[in-house]
Amino acid sequence: MTDLAHIKKPIEAELERFDELFQEALLTTNPILNKVLTYLNQSSGKMMRPMLLFLTAKLLGEVPDKAYHAAISLHLLHNASLVHDDVVDESDERRGRPSLRAAFTNQIAVLSGDYLLSTALYEASQAKDLRIIEVVSRLGKTLASGELLQMSNVDEENFLETAYFEIIKKKTASLFAACTETAALAAGAADDVVEDLRRLGLFVGLAFQIRDDIFDYFDDEARIGKPTGNDMREGKLTLPVLYLLNSEGDERLRQLGLKVKKQIAGADEIAELVALTKERGGIDYAYEVMRGYKELALQILAPYPESEAKEGLRLFLDYMITRDR
Length: 325
Description:
Layout lengths: L3 H5 L3 H14 L5 H11 L6 H12 L5 H24 L4 E2 L2 E2 L1 H4 L2 H20 L4 H24 L7 H26 L4 H25 L5 H4 L5 H4 L5 H10 L2 H11 L5 H13 L2 H20 L6 H15 L3
Antiparallel strand pairs: 1-2
Helix pairs in contact: 4-5, 4-9, 4-17, 5-7, 5-8, 5-9, 7-8, 8-9, 9-10, 10-16, 10-17, 13-15, 13-16, 16-17
C-alpha cells in the first residue's frame, strides 16, 4: 500500500502553512467553541481533501494564496457537514470516538456546525475570486441535497445503482471535485482544464466512497471505526449488496433489502446479507467499478508533464483504492 508520507512529500511546505492558517481561522474567545474546536482538531482525519487540492494546484505550477483560502474553506465545510450528519443520523460515533453530539449535546453540535459553515463561507470570500466562492456555495447546497436524497430513497421499493451513485456523487464525490476545481481556478487555468480537473476530483471521490463502503463488509471495528453491517443497520444499501439484490432475482432477498431500507431488519438478517454479498461477487464487483474510476482519473492526468505533483496524484489514487481504513 502507498505510504501517506510519499504522497505528502511534494506539498509538505504547503500543508504546514495550511495548518497554521487553519488554526488562525478558528481563533475564538468563546469558551464553548474553544472546547468544541479542540475536540474536533483531535480527530481531524488524514487531510485527504487539502492534500488533493494542493497536489492539483502544484500540478499547474506554484500554489497561490487563493488555494489556501479554498482549502481552509472546503475543509471547514466538510467538517460542518460531518457534524450535522451525525445529528441527523443520531450517530454517537465518528472515526472511532464519540461524535460531537455525543461528547457535548445536539444543540451544541448544530450550532458548532453552523459556525464552521459560516467560517467556511468567510474563508472562501478571502480568496477574492467569485468563481471560488460560487464553487463553495454550490457545494453546501449539494451536500445538503445529497443527505435529503438519501432520506427520500428509503421509501423507494427498488435497488437502483443510479440512485446510489447520485447520492455518493452529491454527499462525497462533490467535495473532492470542489477541491480539484478550486485548485485549478486558483491557478488561473483555462476553462477546459478546470472542467477536466473537476472531473478528476469527481472520479477520486467516487472511488473513495466505494472503498469506504467495502469496509462495511469486513470485521475489524477497532481499525475501521465501525462494526460490520453498520451501513445496513442505518438503512443504507451500498454498491456491493446492490449488486447482489439486482443479480439474484430472489424475492426473499428483495424483501430483506426492503427491510434494511426501513431499518427493521434483524441482526441475523443483516449478517446473512453481508455473507451472501461476499460469497456471490458483490465485493469483487465493487472493486471492479472502483478501479474503473481510478483509470478514468489516470486518463485525465496522462497528458500532464511528469512532476513530483503528478506522481503525488498517482500515489494518491493508489492510496484511495488500497487503504485499509
